[in-house]
Amino acid sequence: KTGARGLRAILESLLLDIMFEAPIREDVYKCVITKAAVEQKEQPLLLAKGQNNPETLNQEAPEVSA
pTM of whole model > 0.85? Predict the structure, then answer.
């Protein structure tokens, strides 16, 4: 089991870089912690004003087969 202190340590490690980047960016209104950010150490998603769908931000364009 993960207690409150363990959870705090996990969240701090996830948010360390973003805590300094997000406040200075005026276009950011939301930070989304994804499963990949937690399990695979990817960066959290930053949503700019007007973006509503965080699932599509970091996905590559689908390949078109002929």
Answer: no
Dump pLDDT digits (tens) for 14-36: 888 888 888 888 888 888 888 88
Cα three-residue angle 25-38-42, rounded to 5 degrees: 55
In 3D space, the residue among 13, 4, 3 whose CA is nearest the CA of residue 33 turns out to be 13
> Buried b / exposed e across 31-65, counting CB within 10 Å, b at 16+?
beebeebeeeeeebbbbeeeeeeeeeeeeeeeeee
CA distance 60 to 25: 24
Nearest Cα to 32, choosing from 54, 59, 58? Answer: 54
